[in-house]
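Methods — Computational structure assignment.
A single polypeptide chain was analysed. Its primary sequence is given first, followed by the predicted tertiary structure written as structure tokens.
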Amino acid sequence: MQRELRIVSDGSSAPDMLQKCEIIKSVDTTGMACPYPSFESVKAMSLFNNDNNNANECIEIITDSEESAFKSIPSVCQKRSWQFLVLEEVKGLWRIRIKK
């Protein structure tokens, strides 16, 4: 049974699409201090090829760092014009979905 994910921050023009996107890579950064989750986000996003980007594909970063979930990863996304959605799975654990 999958837990209900609650949207807590939205940097997307289509949050429903990002909530249901096909996750092509999931990176678990739990236990990592900031700024390492944002570094991992940039690394994972390098998988996207601009020519072959499926509109329904995204990456997911799992973090237990509030600073990463609400400041550093959204900041990285905004600087690069990436769409993002921060979902809270349980208190203190977030899943950030990102797409170009």
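Note: The two ends are 29 Å apart (CA to CA).
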